[in-house]
Amino acid sequence: MIRTRAAAALAAASPFICAPPAWPQDAPARSLGVVTVTGGQPTSLPTQIPTTMEGIDREQIERTINATDSGDVLRYFPSLLVRKRYPGDYNHAILSSRASGTGNSARSLVYADGILLSNLLGNGVGGLSFPPRWGLVTPEEIERVDVMYGPFSAAYPGNSVGAVVEYVTRLPRRFEAHAAASYSLHPFELYGTATTYRTWQTSASLGNRAGDWTWWFNVNRQDSEGQPLTFPTRLVSSGTAAGAGVPVTGVVLTRNSAGQPWYVLGSATEYASRQDHLKAKLAYDFPGSIRAAYTLGWWENTTRGRSASHLRDAGGNAVTSGPVRIDGLSFAPLTGADFPLTDERLTHYMHGLSVKSRTQGVFDWEVAASRYDYHRDHKRQNAAGNPPPAAESGGPGTLADGGGTGWTTLALRGTWRPDGMRGAHIVDFGLQRDDFELAYLTSNIAGQWRADPPGSVASNVGGRTQLTSMWAQDAWSFAPRWKTVLGARLERWRAFSGFTVITPAVDTAWPDRSDTHVSPKIAVSWQWRPDTVLKASLGRALRFPTVAELYGATSTANAQFINDPDLRPERSWTGELTAEKELANGLLRLTYFAEETRDALYNQTVFDAAANRNVTRVQNVGRIATQGLEFAWSATDVALPGLNVNASTTFAHSEIRENAGFVTTPGDTVGKRQPNIPRWRATAVADYRWNERWTTSVGARYSSRQFRTLDNSDINGYSYMGVSRLYVIDVRARVQIDKRLSAAFGIDNLNNKTYWNFHPYPQRTFFAELKADL
């Protein structure tokens, strides 16, 4: 992680808080708990706040990570996990943190150069999915990644309760040209599937600084193949001795996440995707240390999802429809819900514009705006009554259209230094408006689902939320070796224009709602010894319901999401105590963290055997309490020159203490563990520079057993819909062939572990990369 001794790179104002003082070169790297970083563009994270922050730079990424997208670079951060199921995963790659699981995407914030990438239209996955827009940042454009843990800055909304991730992308100082190509493959064997899947990726970048103008241009294409992610099943207990059906073979008898015997009948949701990305950045420096910058991002995704039946009749023919008999028992008919086919076409745009002063004098300011637009968002799917192979060539289905969905942000920020850069006070303040709009129309198609225009309405949901905020915080050095940051955030939340239509039973326009809250923040640090700093942080966070949670009910052949327009906001108090010790060649950190959340917002997915589909309900959970310890160690030149190590271990005990709701019977969730929060997590990565040309690395990731359900009934993690223990080893070797050309080779999941988070993760994956830099 980034450990440096000067703050030169943060000398410019940043989008959310202006730069810290320029400390002397011989000052401790974590003096008073203030983060200091050198090189490249400044981070927008509030580095003046003495709380837990971690980072990684471009050189470290190149040495240690086989990265195919921006989510990969978070792989070895303490307590973080991106639920990435395959290369190019665009709709389920949720970020998890200390006390926020992989179903809670709205409890973290992801930015690129201050532009919001987190999809706060919804939370997690269900009928719709809301991961961060990882595809708008490619690995080759990343300069650095910084992470702040917890809601301890007043500059961020309550969605920061888990973590805030900031991608700092490249902005050249001179002419640059780069090209890269990578290839990966992963053989996959599970439930009767035995296939090798491949991913190709190419990219090119150009940039230059000429006088007052700076520009950067990046294009990227990725073609990826993913392993099956879902599986049609039948519970053995649902079979009957009497009844019709075609006798079939080819089933796999196993147990589901609840430990019940069931048959796996085939595979589904096997994606082949093509993703194109374009990023253009333009900046101009005006007289008086004022910079204007514009960013345009374009991302297009074309995805084909397919299914396969493993069932065979007496003649060896595939069986995909009608009732079947297995081991003498008759089971419910196979439909298109068992073997869904999907075609998706998404075109999204991102715009960011900012004008800021960078005087580092008494006062600096910034005006920043961004827009993320679902210009086109189409998903076509066969109907339940139209199973393959007939559905491959047409027949009835649906078209889901999310065009017009998106979010807009506007922020006015200022920094006041009444006594200059070395004064006792640095005051930051701002006004912010965030608008989110959901528009999702699902139409029936009676003829050819793959090509025909939409017909009658199946469902139509939408609405808006708006968050208007005013905030301020003061970084106050009130005594030698002491520093505190006092802040507060006033928020006015509105939900309006909400409607839910599900033909023919539901047609509702929901009443408007509004709410106002204040969230105080405090952080204190004490330089106990020249090499040791002690820190304490406390913050309140309000995570308001998203548009999809309030209004976004959806119903398809194989999935249903049930909304709740009366959801209460989630209220969290989060605190941490930290000791950081500078070592001769690194940093040692121990953090105790605690969080209590009332009215926690949760999406709970269960399988409805009668309807043969997953049903997700959103609800408030009364009170969840979490406590834990996080240990992190980073060092360079460990034992011998050129050997660098970063390692972390996290223990978390997260328990549901109060809840009026239930899964099966009243009280069945109280005293149970919070879903998707493991007791233990650990990461470690070591890289070694053999000579001027060669570097190698070995990484390890571990996560202990966890639950997915609120009542912890999913006792079998090693199954479809279960969450298993994770332990994988990754390796990478990089060679600098000459001044301009480099190559890398790696293997992720070297030990070929099969592990699950509802869906199966990739097994052993081989990776190769070639780069040219001018």
UniProtKB/TrEMBL annotation:
The lineage of its organism: Bacteria, Pseudomonadati, Pseudomonadota, Betaproteobacteria, Burkholderiales. GO terms for cellular component: cell outer membrane. Its main location: membrane. It comes from Ramlibacter henchirensis. Belongs to the TonB-dependent receptor family. Residues 378-404 are annotated as: Disordered. It is found in: Cell outer membrane. This is TonB-dependent receptor. It holds the Pfam family TonB_dep_Rec_b-barrel.
